[in-house]
Amino acid sequence: MTPPAGPSAGLPATGSRERILARIRAAVAAAPEPPVRRAYRTGARMPRETLIELFAERVRDYRAIVHTVPGAEVPGTVAAALARRGVRRLVVPAHLPEAWLERTGGSVERLADDPPLPAAELDRADGVISGCAVAIAETGTIVLDAGPGQGRRALTLVPDYHLCLVRAEQIVPRVPEAIARLDPRRPLTWISGPSATSDIELNRIEGVHGPRTLEVVIITD
Predict the structure, then answer these.
(1) Which residues, listed in sequence order, are joined to residue 58 by a DSSP beta bridge?
(2) How far from the centroid of its chain's Cα atoms is residue 217's Cα?
(3) Pairing of strands 127-130, 161-167
(4) Which of 213, 192, 217, 221 has its CA nearest to residue 68?
């Protein structure tokens, strides 16, 4: 085969590539940056009760356990959930509202992540409790951003059981509204039900990449 002739003949592929890209950069260097239109479809304004019902329905579709309770019933609901699960050692992120755990008494040992708990210790814990940053009604998705009451990402990915509390005002209709509330520079964890995957024969296996059991408490007020 006859080698190509011309100014790039004999140059390695990477050299030709860099020369082409350099010419493109030079050509557009003075060009104005065009505006990017992001006309995302957002949800119509929904009553809070509708958002709560839709979110609860979608979370249940993912085989999560869901409770919808007023704020006054949260401590009792949390204590009952932990007792049913047999939780004795619970990972508790910093700045989680103390009132949420006030009914657990001395039956549950709280594991603080200061200093950071090693992975083996997280794996030996019976579960983790956390809040969230935002929740999406249409998809039944919970988003954590390592904010107060959520802790670092490993806390809610290693233990086999995750009890997550979601305030009604944190529920938005669709993904665009959730994105608008989130800081992309923070470590975001998107949770849609318990961890699950399927093999080539579509056999569902839970708990492979995270908690096998997700329990959600929606606080209505």
Answers:
(1) none
(2) 16
(3) parallel
(4) 217
| Residue closest to 214 by CA, chosen among 141, 151, 154, 149 | 141
Rounded distance, CA 144 to CA 211, Å?
A: 14
By C-alpha distance, which of 131, 130, 83 is closest to 108? 83
Report all structural domains of the chain as residue ranges with CATH numbers, in order of start: 48-219 (3.40.50.10420)
Q: Are 97 and 147 in contact (CB under 8 A)?
A: no
Q: Distance (Å, rounded) from C-alpha 182 to C-alpha 139?
A: 16
Query: For 132-164, how does the pLDDT look when each residue is reduced to its tens digit (9 = 90+)?
Result: 999 999 999 999 999 999 999 999 999 999 999
d(CA 186, CA 171): 19
Q: Which residue has the tokens 């869901």?
A: 66
CA gap 83, 148 in Å, rounded = 25
Greatest alpha-carbon pair distance for the chain in Å reads 83
pLDDT of residue 106: 84
At residue 77, what are phi and psi to the nearest 5 degrees? Answer: -65, -40
Contact 74, 98 (CB under 8 A): no
How far apart, in whole angstroms, are the C-alpha atoms of residue 130 and residue 145? 11
**Spatial separation of the C-alpha atoms in residues 63 and 130, rounded to whole Å:** 19
> How confident is the model over 110-134, as pLDDT tens digits?
999 999 999 999 999 999 999 999 9
Write down the pLDDT at residue 8: 47
pLDDT digits (tens, 9 = 90+) for 191-208: 998 877 766 777 767 666
pTM, rounded to two decimals? 0.80
